[in-house]
Amino acid sequence: MSTITLDARSLPRTPWHGHAEESELGHWSAVARTVAEALAVDALARDKANAEPFSEVGLLRDSGLLNLLVPTEFGGGGGHWESAFAAVRIIATADGSIAQLLAYHYANQASIAFYADPANQGAWFARSAADGWLWGDSVNPVDPDLHLVAEGDGYRLNGLKRFSTGSSVGDVIVINAAVTGGKNDGKVLAFVLERTREGLELLGDWDHLGQRLSASGSVKYHDVFVAPQDVLGEVTAEPIATLLTPGLQLAFGNFYLGIAEGALSAGRAILLERKNSWFLSSADTYAQDPVFQRILGELKARTAAVGALAEKLNRRFDTEVGRAGDLDEAQRGDIAVAIAELKVVATEAALEVANRIYEVTGSSSTKNDVGLDLFWRNVRTHSLHDPVDYKKIEVGTYFLHGTNAPLSLYT
Description:
By secondary structure, this protein is of the alpha+beta class. It has helices spanning 22-40, 43-49, 54-63, 81-92, 96-109, 111-115, 118-131, 239-242, 244-273, 290-322, 329-356, 358-361, 373-382, 388-401; strands at residues 135-138, 147-151, 154-161, 172-180, 188-194, 200-202, 219-226, 231-234. Helix content is 50%, strand content 12%. Strands 1, 2, 3, 4, 5, 6, 7 and 8 form an 8-stranded mixed β-sheet that branches. Residues 1-11 have low confidence and may be disordered. GO terms for molecular function: 3-methylbutanoyl-CoA dehydrogenase activity; flavin adenine dinucleotide binding.
């Protein structure tokens, strides 16, 4: 009998398949709720302190959430993307910054599956799981490209990247850069460096209106040596590899949704505690006044509609990822547009909820120690990541002509 040897390159590019069962979703959602409850206790105080969120990362690590997507055979939780997106949404109800950290971590860690040769994926996943790595990134495409120059069997990296989420607290940072010289000249490589690598400078310059604990400062590289073993693989236009960006956009939709739900919950609690009522009202309390009930009902209904769309797409994303190397351009393009639709409505719903919640909580809720503004500041800050109007154009163009936006780290 002849022996058949499989070429590792012909194996699936992604290790995920099937869908999350109710028991899995229930488990990880319960874990996320426990973390969210802990974060909610001092969310405003931590936001004001604006310190690097090492303790918050420790909370995520201890909970097991960082390894949710790592296959069980490599020491991870063996979960699906649907469970990961649900966890991000739940964490965002308490702390949008930490939800962003977790969302980017999942995408960055998943670079293993989208870029690395299947023969090498197991070792990367196992190392990440064993050491509980939080994955940051340094791939902001609006900055000039980094300079990655071939040197011997490795490379030298120089340059600056702003908006490097998770970089200042991540155990490792995933970076993309085009190669100059050598056998890989012109190729864009994805590679992974530890935060403490010699020549890697964390500038600590993230000090923005919201998402203050997302560890999104700039990173500067001074002749950093990149060894062959640091390289995940080439960044290509292969449909399954390019699915990583829609996945991150889907995570955005989920944490915008979570922020809206958090604002609604906080507003409800404040309204129920309000005494008396408006002097023109016939109700005994503000919470019994139809005016305030109507506002909350409108905001709650819109948020629920966005939630239904998110849940549908979270489950569908597992279907598309499960196609692995068989995912084609049409399938990739169709889900990217569907996710863009969520990005549009999640952005607008979260901004509206975080803004209008004050209409039911009253002027006393604008006191700085109440902290209701944290929800608006967080969603207002991150929703500017890429212009939502371009997402509307992306959706409209596809609806009219069936054409997709050019591939990029935003589409």
